[in-house]
Amino acid sequence: MSEKLNRLAIVLKEKDIRQKDFAQQWGKSLAGLSNICNNKSQPSLKELKIAADLLGVSLRELIVDTKPE
User: Fold this and answer.
1) Strands (E), 1-69
2) CB 31: neighbour CB atoms within 10 A?
3) Is pLDDT of 1 > 80?
4) Rounded to 5 degrees, what angle do the CA atoms 63, 12, 5 make?
5) 34-39 average pLDDT score
6) Residue 44, by phi and psi: left (phi above 0), alpha (psi -120 to 50) or beta?
7) pTM, whole model, 2 decimals?
8) Are 26 and 54 in contact (CB under 8 A)?
C-alpha cells in the first residue's frame, strides 16, 4: 500500500511523542502502532478517534494535512 491513509507518525513527530510511549497510552503493542504509523495496517475510525483525543488533535488532522500551505 503506497498511499498514506493516516498521519499518525507525522503528528507524533510534531508533538515530540515517542511511539513507545504513545503505544502504551493507546493500549497498542509497539509493533502494532509501528504498522499503523507506516500505513501497513489501519485502525478503525473509532480507534483513530481515540488516538486523536489522546493527542489533543481533531480526527481530521490524523487523516489529512490541515496546515495551510
Assistant:
1) none
2) 9
3) no
4) 25
5) 94
6) beta
7) 0.85
8) yes
Q: How many residues does the chain have?
A: 69
What would the grid cell of residue 66 be? 490541515
Q: What does the DSSP 8-state code read for residue 66?
A: -
Instruction: Work out the number of other CB atoms within 10 angstroms of the CB of residue 62.
Output: 21
What dihedral do alpha carbons 52, 12, 14, 49 form, nearest 10°? -10
Q: What's the first-to-final CA gap in the chain, in angstroms?
A: 26
Residue with cell 489522546: 54
Phi, psi for residue 17 in degrees, rounded to 5? -110, 130
Q: How far apart are CA 30 and CA 66, in angstroms?
A: 27
